[in-house]
Amino acid sequence: GWYWIRNSRDNSTLKIYCYLQGHHYCGEGAWMRIGYFYTGRHLAECPPSLERFAYNKRWYCRQSVDGNCSSVYFDSLGNEIKEVCGMIVAYQWNTPDAFHASSGQTIDDPYMDGISITQGFPRQHIWTYAVGAYENTGGHCITCKCPCSSGGNGNTSPPSFVGGDYYCDSGNTKPYAEPVVYPDRLWDSSGVSCVSGSTCCDNPDQPWFRKKLTTPSTDNIEVRWCGNSAKTGEAAATTQVEVYVQI
User: Fold this and answer.
1) Residue 54 and residue 18: Cα distance in Å, rounded?
2) Sign of CA dihedral 156, 162, 167, 170
3) Nearest to 37 by CA among 52, 15, 55
4) Residues ≥6 apart with Cβ < 8 Å to 232
5) How many angstroms from the chain centroid is the CA of residue 81?
6) Among candidates 194, 189, 181, which has minimal Cα distance to 96?
7) Which end of the chain is more exposed for a tag (fewer CB within 10 A), N or C?
8) How far from 48 is each of 51, 58, 79, 139, CA to CA, in Å?
């Protein structure tokens, strides 16, 4: 329910949605929602740093820049964050290529096509939602697929700072991509990526993630929408975001 939460930075109070008796996906304890948007509501807008675009009479959010990332910050309200939980609902737009261009990239770069969740400066990685070009075992660019996809030999692995803290998915069954929003929802343990030989759907809790931080911090949570090429050519077309921290 809704509760008045004190911001320890300036002693102000804000009305925040919380789960005080545990959360189905986040686990036991008290969880405070510090980030939320949903484009399906009437007159809903994207956060200011993102670009809203329409496809088939539906609104989506994506990065507002080409070949880089657009950041949205969710305020910790001065609370020491020990654990983060959340989910993202998005769809494949055109030809994202997962970790294809990650070689030599740092956490500050567009190291994948998709969405990166971090905290603080220097950035500490929390979770990555990557989008591959296609699930089909054919195609002209095998390294543009998800590392977890079927026939994965040669697929580009995520950078070391990501490790295993990521989801990767594709909504495209063809060996080529088109300038469309594919209807199959990403990171939901179902759909075109759930084929023999793929491990992309192994976690049944997708799109939810949960991460205990190595070093608790009061720094805000940063969510970045990234693409290493033009935004019209690759994006995670997002309709909903929820970010919770344990309090």
Assistant:
1) 31
2) negative
3) 52
4) 94, 179
5) 19
6) 181
7) N
8) 8, 18, 24, 36
End-to-end CA distance of the chain: 15
CA distance 151 to 159: 20
What does the pLDDT profile of the chain (247 residues) look like in tens digits? 999 999 988 999 999 999 999 999 999 999 999 999 999 988 899 999 999 999 999 999 999 999 999 999 999 999 999 999 999 999 999 999 999 989 889 999 999 999 999 999 999 999 999 999 988 666 678 788 898 887 654 567 899 999 999 999 999 988 888 899 999 999 998 877 787 778 888 999 999 999 999 999 999 999 999 999 999 999 999 999 999 999 8
